[in-house]
Amino acid sequence: MRESVFITGGTSGLGLALAKLYDQAGFSVAVCGRDLTKLSPLDRENFQCYEVDVTKSEDLIAAVDDFVAKKGRLDIMIASAGRSVGSKSKVPRFDVAREVIAINVFGVINAFEAACKYMLSQKKGQLVAISSVAGFVGLPGASSYSASKAAVTIYCESLMLDLKDQGITTSVICPGFVDTPLTKKNNHSMPFLMSAGKAAVIMKNAIDRKKALTIFPWPMKLIITLLNKMPRCCYRFLMQLKVLNYSR
């Protein structure tokens, strides 16, 4: 029986790139997304596909149930579905904030809930969340996105401790800027931008090694670590030097 992986947000960007890598590695692969028309006919043939909104927990659970019923097991759940804020703004957009939190935080929780139903009984499995370097600091113009990714990173850290004795590994991956449909909406500079294919290889290697925390690329890891560790008053002063452009 082949190992299996379920990937939320697997119809585009990093999720799709990961799905292709796991398919090449011989896994049974399931992907879900809100719009399956994004997938090519070949992808539809290679993957088990579900049209699911990750904020709808019952629908996501039903999709995972169907996949496990067909494949007999669930080895890895990768919560990759995400929502960015797009154009940065100094004016809070509370409607956008609610959607970002719903997808980026509750989408992860819903995916893990659907997977744990099987992994706890198996006493085996791996939960993976795709977070971001943005979760280590409060980035100007991206309050909801930074908050959502910080929540995911800390949530996973707690689960690492809680689930280890249950045979379940929890991993969180924090990439910098990756060239995906989400980042194409950004109206600001994106240093060290990386292709989705290259990023997916790094991510899969980290998942294979069951690394608890992965931050990449290394220049962004260095920068974000320095920003995270510096006194908060210094960080706020640095950010207020208008090093980033805003649009209303």
What is this structure's SSE topology?
Layout: E1 4-8, H1 13-24, E2 28-33, H2 41-46, E3 48-51, H3 57-71, E4 76-79, H4 94-122, E5 125-130, H5 143-163, E6 168-175, E7 178-179, E8 194-195, H6 196-208, E9 213-216, H7 218-229, H8 232-239
Parallel strand pairs: 1-2, 1-4, 2-3, 4-5, 5-6, 6-9, 7-8
Helix pairs in contact: 1-6, 3-4, 4-5
Verbal overview:
With 248 residues, the protein is an alpha/beta fold. The chain has one domain (4-239): Rossmann fold. It has helices spanning 13-24, 41-46, 57-71, 94-122, 143-163, 196-208, 218-229, 232-239; strands at residues 4-8, 28-33, 48-51, 76-79, 125-130, 168-175, 178-179, 194-195, 213-216. Strands 3-2-1-4-5-6-9 form a seven-stranded parallel sheet, sandwiched between helices. Strands 7-8 form a two-stranded parallel sheet. Helix 1 (13-24) packs across helix 6, helix 3 (57-71) runs parallel beside helix 4 (94-122) and helix 4 (94-122) runs parallel beside helix 5 (143-163). The longest helix has 29 residues, at 94-122. The radius of gyration is 18 Å and the shape is globular. Mean pLDDT is 92; it is low at 244-248.
In short:
The protein is α/β, with parallel strands linked by helices and 248 residues long. The chain is 47% helix and 17% strand. It contains eight helices and nine strands.
What key phrases describe this protein's structure?
248 residues; alpha/beta; Rossmann fold; 7-stranded parallel β-sheet; two-stranded parallel sheet; 8 helices; 9 strands; 17% strand
